[in-house]
Amino acid sequence: MKTLVYLIKVYSKHLGLKVYSLVLLSVLIAIIDGFGITLMLPILEGIDSGKPETQLPSLVVHVLQLLGVSFELKGILVFMFIVFTVKALIKMISGYFQSRLYKELYRKLKLGLLEGIMNVEFGYFSSKNSGHFVTILSDHVNRMIASFNIFIAVITTAFMASYYIFLAASLSFRISIIAALFGGTAVLLLSRITKYVKKLSKKIASEEKINSQNAIQSIGSFKYLMATGMFNRLSVKYKKSVNKITAMHFRTQTANVFSRSTRELVTVALLILLIFIETQLFQNSISSILLVLILFYRAVNQLMFIQNNFQLLLTSVGMIESVDEEFSQLKLNRITDGSTDLTAEDLKSNIEFKSIEFAFDSNPSFNLSIEKLIIENNQVLALVGTSGSGKSTLIELLWVTTCEVYRHFHWSASSRPREFSK
Q1: Please, are residues 193 and 311 in contact by the beta-carbon 8 Å criterion?
Q2: CA atoms of 33 and 31, how far apart (whole Å)
């Protein structure tokens, strides 16, 4: 339940109240669907006896009387046709609305993340590896968008199952108690699998970022890696990451297969149990509880459908949390002092490094020492040096200096060394 509430909040951040409108349409579809099913069988059975209202739940009878529907064959059949026609129209409207929201979500996530990255503080940007942003922008966002339809299906099915159970309970409270105990136990046992899948999803999301980083470095720096003999070392890291991801995906798929395979078994077991108790212990005929059995059969089917789809949804929860967290971090680290408007014209004076000592905490043996370096305005400067001499580090220091001119960013011998890259 906490996960569903969290997902509603996440999607509503980008779609606003439209998400709740779609949920409301789902509730309406569930009510009409349950009402139509409740009408069909008992009315057709009751027509022969001349008292179809005796076969219906009291709530349904009151609704029909309120609408002025006569309990005659012609009137009942026309009303049933109208009910299912209205249901079809609402499902069409809901489907169209859901498609529009899917399109809007895709645009806002993709463009919103890109805009956030383009306006983020350099310190935050440089603290992340190259695979971090690429993975979130492509794979994680795509998984979040695809999960939107699954999320709506879970919400709709949940309302349908609840309404079926409510109608069945109004016909036979005793059967509803038995079914609730049995179904609750089954869902409780399967919930352990649900938690396991959610945990794996978070691990997969984290590992995919590392995997993307290794892939990007392998392709982007191919010539350098081959020339320095480092390609095989990075290739080993990439293969190790792939093996981790595939192993976790295998465990996730195995858990999903187990849940799907037990769906029909749980449903049939419940029906057999209910029929046995009612016919053997309470001496009731099957025909007298047929509607209740049909409603509970559909309810349990819907509950198992929820379990399977919710489990499928949880395989993407790690990616959804990753995207949501990234939006929060980009907003928190957004440039707010106007330095994004910095142009070459703003750099009127020279850039000067004086008495710079820089080292990485993760690599104490490396030390970049600059006694004095002056880069004149509009001067083109080439950096030449062996691998590992500090060319890229100097460029990052230079980039930070130029990007934070308006903050009077100052590097000197007394400046605290800062690690810009992992």
Answers
A1: yes
A2: 5
| Burial tier of 86 (Cβ tally within 10 Å: 0-12, 13-18, 19+) | middle
Residue 150 token pair: 């699954």
**∠ Cα 229 234 239 (to 5°):** 135
At residue 253, φ and ψ (nearest 5 deg) are -65, -40
Distance in angstroms between the alpha carbons of the first and the last residue of the chain = 38
pTM, to two decimals: 0.67
Closest CA to 291 of 43, 2, 7, 24: 43
* Token pair belonging to 193: 């699998």
- In angstroms, rounded to a whole number, what is the distance separating the alpha carbons of residues 218 and 225? 7
Within 8 A by CB and 6+ apart from 180, the residues are 165
Which is it for the CA torsion 184, 186, 188, 190, positive or negative? negative
d(CA 374, CA 381): 10
CA distance 73 to 50: 10
Task: Round to whole Å and give the CA distance between 3 and 315.
Answer: 12
Statement: residue 323 has pLDDT above 70: yes
CA distance 151 to 148: 5
- The label of the residue with tokens 């895709």 reads 106
- Decide: 83 and 36 in contact? Cβ < 8 Å: yes
Find all residues with CB under 8 Å of 301, minimum gap 6, and list them: 263, 267
> Which residue in the block uniquely carries the two structure tokens 């089954």?
186
For residues 320 and 102, the answer to whether their CB atoms sit within 8 Å is no
Q: Are strands 363-375 and 351-360 parallel, antiparallel or unpaired?
A: antiparallel
> Would you mind telling me the total number of residues written for the chain in this entry?
422
| Tokens of residue 148, six digits | 């939107």
What confidence tens digit (pLDDT) does each residue in 168-211 have? Answer: 787 788 877 877 777 777 777 777 888 888 888 888 888 888 88
Between CA 328 and CA 350 the distance in angstroms is 37
